[in-house]
Amino acid sequence: MKSSYVIAGVITVAAVGWMASGQFPAGGATGDAAAPVEPGQVTAQQAAPAPAAEADKPFPVRVRSVVAQEHLRELVLYGRTEADRTVQVRVETDGQVAERPVTKGQKVKAGQVLAQLNMDDRAARLQQAEAEVRSRQVAYDAATDLAKKNFRSKVQLVEEEAALAAAKAALRTIRVAIDHTRVRAPFDGVVEDLPVEDGDYLKTGDPVARIMDLDPLVVAAEVSERDINRVHVGGWAQVTLVDGRQAEGTVRYVAKASDNSTRTFRVEIAIDNPDGVWLGGLPDRLDMIIVGQEFVREGQTVQAVPETAPPQTNGKGAHMAVSDS
Question: What is the CATH number of the domain that holds 187?
Answer without folding.
Answer: 2.40.50.100
